[in-house]
Amino acid sequence: MTDKTDFKKTLDAYRATRGAFRIVDVPDMRYLMVDGHGDPNTAAAFTDGVQALYSVAYPLKFASKRGLGRDYVVPPLEGLWWADDMESFTAARDKSRWDWTLMIMVPDWIDGDMFTTAVGQARAKSQPARLDAVRLETLSEGRCVQTLHVGSFDDEAEVLRRMHQEFIPGGGLRMAGRHHEIYLSDHRKVAPEKQRTILRQPITGT
After folding, report:
1. Buried (b) or exposed (e) across 101-129, using 16+ Cβ within 10 A?
2. pTM value?
């Protein structure tokens, strides 16, 4: 019986505190990724993207356990978010103008051959609509500031304002890279006011 690794408990990058902004050095991490555009509440590409990611993530987990003796908890869904005018994301919340990359982290011992095999298994089993859009890629974020938000996604705006307009410039820092969210709660099962989301912003400066 192998031990099961839970990266939410072992990686510092998955730790955040409500009401506090913390600077963390995030190591390069590998993800299953799929891109899209538009309102996540209405865009079919968003729902199809989530389904495609999980259809690959679980075969990878099982292959790791069976073939390598290394079991792990599938990490939470994550997302990179941006827009041509970031005001449409942080203030106006015009979701129709949003671009996004959905992601699920995979351990660094997962290689390209295992990914290809997992995609083939997903295709044979369920043929998810956006399977061909899923890729395996390394994300390099480096130094970031992050906090834990508890509440609905639409209530993030004030937290982001304080992060972007107060904490970051107040520390002589600058934003660099895309807004990153880590969904510690399953929004299908948890009431909006209880949802737990890590909000992360890559930064540069002293």
Report:
1. bbbbbbbeebeeebbeebbebbeeeeebe
2. 0.93
